[in-house]
Amino acid sequence: MKKQLLDQIIKKKKNKNEFAIITNIANGESCFFEKNKPLDKNFEKYLDQINNFFNKKKNGIIENTDIFVETYVRPIKVIIVGQYILRNILLIMQKV
User: Which residues of 17-47 are buried (b: 16+ CB within 10 A; e: fewer)?
Assistant: First the structure.
């Protein structure tokens, strides 16, 4: 991978952008894929399959090709609210 591509990966991960790295494993050529942005002309014919991988948040090689898709997605944020449970316990205790 080229240094420029690695710098872009770091920047996009820091900004929490969702993207994919598309790599032709036969010749090592790589490019970025982002939703609703133009794709490198060398990978345009695989756009439907790339979109499919990206939407399913899946990594892998496109069937019958040498194209590898690696998706980077934002992790799901989980917020646990403990006051609700505590309030319910206090209400139950109050009724007793």
Answer: eebbbbbbeeeeebebbeeeeebeeebeebe
Q: What ranges do the domains of the chain cover?
A: 3-95
And the tokens for 66? Answer: 């040498």
Alpha-carbon span 26 to 79, nearest angstrom: 43
For the chain, 96 residues long, give each residue's pLDDT as a single digit of tens: 678 888 888 888 888 888 999 999 999 898 989 888 888 898 999 999 999 999 999 999 999 999 999 998 877 776 666 666 677 777 777 776
Nearest to 70 by CA among 87, 91, 54, 83: 54
Which helix (H) or strand (E) element contains residue 67? strand 67-72
- Asked if 6 and 14 count as a contact pair (C-beta separation under 8 A), the reply is no
